[in-house]
Amino acid sequence: MADILERIVEVKRDEIRALKSRYSLSALEELAGAADRVRGFQVSLRSAVAAGRAGVIAEIKKASPSKGVIRADFDPAWIAGEYAAHGAACLSVLTDERFFQGHNDYLVAARKAVALPAIRKDFLVDPLQVIEARAIGADCVLLIAACLSVGQLRELYGLAQSLGMDVLVEIHDGMELEQVLSAQLAGPLLLGINNRNLRTFETRLDTTLDLLPRLPKDCEVVTESGIAAPADVKRMRDADVHRFLIGESLMRQPSPGQALAALVA
Fold first, then answer.
1. Is 261 within 8 Å of 86 (Cβ atoms)?
2. What is the Cα–Cα distance from 49 to 43, expressed in whole angstroms?
3. Cα 9 to chain center, whole Å?
């Protein structure tokens, strides 16, 4: 399979040029400053775990490059309500249009429908995208180590924090972990370990478990992708991993919220 991540980042560069043609930096900063107050994304996860529950970031995703359309009857506000009613701590909303059929408006709609904090799930490689995330109401942004240098990671992380947002930093192997640690980001670090390789889209739950011994003690780990059955949740929680980003397995069900509740019961 071709390097999907590389293709996505190439498209993002075109999107960034278009964004810069639509907004000046000052105009986008003004929109970000006028956005709704930030909701505590990392705090919400922490509270769920402290109460003995799985801290679930429940994903709102219409499609993916590897699977095509996942949910045809796609209503972000309704899905957000389903998740909020069945124990999600946070929302993850895909805003990438080209590869995941997402949209910024989906995050706006989902966040308006419920009180949960939301992360903008996209491929951010430029400061303007981070400011745009806050402008559309994001409480957290995703930074994927695989498509950022150490310098970019540090810059975008600091910018997000200066705007009041939390940051989920995503890795999928040991080299990327070392890259993130070398950036010396302000902690406690919210670290997503993606069990799906974004270059090939192959998925292995052992990815999370193999990296655990190498993590800083104060690291707050989120296991991402491939969590499809209660046994997967139990396996992770038995290893002291209590934060999850779950999407595809829920989006295929008639009631995503009921599917979430059954998965983490």
1. yes
2. 10
3. 17
pTM passes above 0.90: yes
Q: What is the three-class DSSP state of 92?
A: strand
Radius of gyration of the chain (CA): 17
Question: What single letter denotes the amino acid at residue 104?
Answer: N
The full DSSP string for 18-49 is HHHHH--HHHHHHHHHHSPPPP-HHHHHHHHH
Closest CA to 230 of 196, 261, 194: 261
Angle between helices 25-34 and 127-135 (to 10 degrees): 30
Residues serving a catalytic function are 59, 61, 121, 170, 194, 224-225
Domains of the chain from N-terminus onward: 4-264 (3.20.20.70)
Residue 78 near residue 106 (C-beta atoms within 8 A): no
How many helices and strands in the chain, by DSSP H and E?
A: 12, 10
**Tens digit of each residue's pLDDT (9 = 90 or more) over 114-151:** 999 999 999 999 999 999 999 999 999 999 999 999 99
**What does the DSSP 8-state code read for residue 99?**
T
Contact 128, 28 (CB under 8 A): yes
Q: What are phi and psi of 260, to 5 degrees?
A: -60, -50
Provide the Cα torsion 23, 24, 30, 33; round to 10°: 80
AA identity, residue 217: K
Contact 146/199 with Cβ under 8 angstroms?
A: yes
Q: Tens digits of per-residue pLDDT, 46-59?
A: 999 999 999 999 99
**DSSP assignment of 118-156:** EEEES---SHHHHHHHHHTT-SEEEEEGGG--HHHHHHH
